[in-house]
Amino acid sequence: MKKISILFSLSIALASLTFCKKKEVSYTIEGHVQDNTYNQGMTGASVFVELKSANSSSAFEAFKSVTLDSSGDFTIEIPRGNYTQARFTVEKGGYFETRNTLQFQNLSVEETNKIDLSSTQKSWARIIFINDNGQTNDILSFLKQKGKTGCNECCNSETVVINGAVGDTIVCINDANTEFSFIYSINGGNPMTESLITAPGVTTDKIIHY
What we know:
- The protein has two domains: 25-119, Carboxypeptidase-like, regulatory domain (Immunoglobulin-like); 122-209, Immunoglobulin-like.
- The chain has one helix and 15 strands.
- The strands form four sheets. Strands 1, 2, 5 and 8 form a four-stranded mixed β-sheet that branches.
- By secondary structure, it is mainly β.
- It has one helix at 2-23, and strands spanning 26-35, 40-41, 46-53, 61-67, 73-79, 83-91, 98-103, 113-119, 122-130, 139-146, 160-163, 167-175, 179-186, 192-197, 203-209.
């Protein structure tokens, strides 16, 4: 009887462990990353997932990374824990980094959670000003009107003044296949507007003679 009792106790313990394992839950998150340059799902990019716990005031900690499939999709499981936020960062060479954050209070363990991100390929606008007369007292004012904003590499939207230059160049990063435009004037004269479409992955030139 004692042996039967021990076996019975072990069976209950194993059943309890199995039951506990079944009670473990996680968040399923399905994501899609759109390549806005080519209007299709992005391929060849990595998605880095970081988590912030309720015990941390500011820092995110690395969780794992996943690779996009051929359609630009990914799936990730995050175990339920003492987390408040999940941050997703998409990185691909030649593309702008993009990031989005989910709040765990808005996530469900019963249903699949969705997240959408997008990015564009980098391109550059190179404005080449050539002073044909070579007058050292000429003053040229340049002001970006349309173009990429909000990135560390972006040209700001403040007026740039070039004094007495025989030739000068301004280079601004931009979203590929989008318009870059600017206003310029010479010696305080009438402002003139120029624009160009920046091609993916390369520098597109605009030459201004004055």
